[in-house]
Write a sequence for this structure.
């Protein structure tokens, strides 16, 4: 693999974040001096902007066609290896409802859930709940609902993020800690805890806040966290395998005060911004940012 296209941008709600990830990845791979790196800003849901002679594609797209199996299937049709899971696994992971169903079927722990449509007058689950679009990421359209009068606006925000129709996911809110584990080629990276102001990790806390902290569990003074990390890494790999993933995936969790683990979702094209957690975890293993990108690139395959 010599000529590498870094696919970024796209048409989803996460376009702005994707452009940052893609720029960072392209610069990192170029710095290694062994690839001809071609940044490709996709402005439509096709590969018309992809130049000829590409040996592999690094997918830095987030959401939409870039993460729901669309670009993966298009690259498969051209026989171009790409980073991250294949088309079917990507499609399943992007749809949080399908993810929930598969995790439950495979015995991987996940929070209780239900669905709501535009006419749903109240939460179908006891409060507090989290309302989210099933097929968006980066915390777009997600709201925690603790009081009944907040339900209408939360439902409206989730529906608006997906064009106004369809059904949205309503998930039991698990009090406790938020953690994440990256997986590359079936190997779990160090676990990271997400400590957000006021205990809510929304869009601003994820991308704009300098107050959100990301301590590694391995640095915790609590000896129980060493055992928790091992359990999180095992469940992360279980979830990764349940959806048939390959390459890189990030698995997000809530951990209850009693230490029970719940998988929230799988992200098959995790971010590579300054706040992103997969590169942080990869660098914890002794790699540089560029070497993390290179390791992911080397996992590129096609179906």
């Amino acid at each position: 693999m010599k000529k590498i296209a870094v696919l970024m941008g796209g048409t989803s709600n996460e376009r702005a974040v994707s452009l940052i990830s893609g720029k960072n990845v392209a610069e990192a791979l170029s710095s290694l001096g062994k690839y001809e790196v071609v940044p490709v800003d996709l402005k439509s849901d096709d590969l018309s902007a992809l130049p000829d002679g590409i040996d592999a594609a690094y997918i830095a797209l987030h959401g939409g066609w870039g993460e729901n199996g669309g670009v993966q299937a298009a690259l498969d049709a051209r026989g171009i290896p790409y980073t991250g899971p294949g088309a079917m696994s990507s499609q399943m992971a992007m749809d949080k409802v399908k993810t929930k169903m598969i995790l439950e079927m495979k015995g991987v722990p996940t929070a209780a859930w239900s669905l709501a449509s535009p006419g749903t007058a109240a939460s179908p689950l006891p409060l507090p709940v989290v309302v989210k679009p099933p097929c968006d990421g980066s915390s777009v359209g997600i709201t925690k609902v603790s009081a009944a009068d907040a339900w209408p606006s939360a439902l409206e925000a989730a529906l608006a993020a997906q064009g106004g129709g369809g059904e949205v996911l309503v998930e039991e809110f698990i009090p406790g800690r938020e953690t994440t584990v990256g997986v590359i080629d079936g190997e779990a990276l160090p676990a990271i805890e997400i400590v957000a102001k006021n205990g809510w990790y929304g869009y601003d806390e994820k991308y704009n806040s300098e107050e959100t902290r990301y301590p590694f569990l391995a640095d915790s003074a609590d000896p129980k966290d060493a055992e928790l990390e091992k359990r999180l890494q095992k469940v992360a790999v279980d979830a990764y395998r349940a959806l048939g993933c390959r390459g890189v995936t990030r698995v997000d969790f809530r951990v209850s005060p009693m230490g029970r683990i719940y998988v929230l979702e799988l992200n098959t094209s995790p971010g590579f911004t300054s706040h992103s957690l997969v590169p942080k975890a990869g660098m914890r293993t002794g790699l540089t940012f560029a070497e993390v990108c290179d390791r992911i690139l080397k996992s590129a395959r096609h179906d």
About this structure: Residues 115 and 169 are 5 Å apart (CA to CA). The domain at 113-172 is CATH 3.30.1490.20 (Dna Ligase; domain 1).
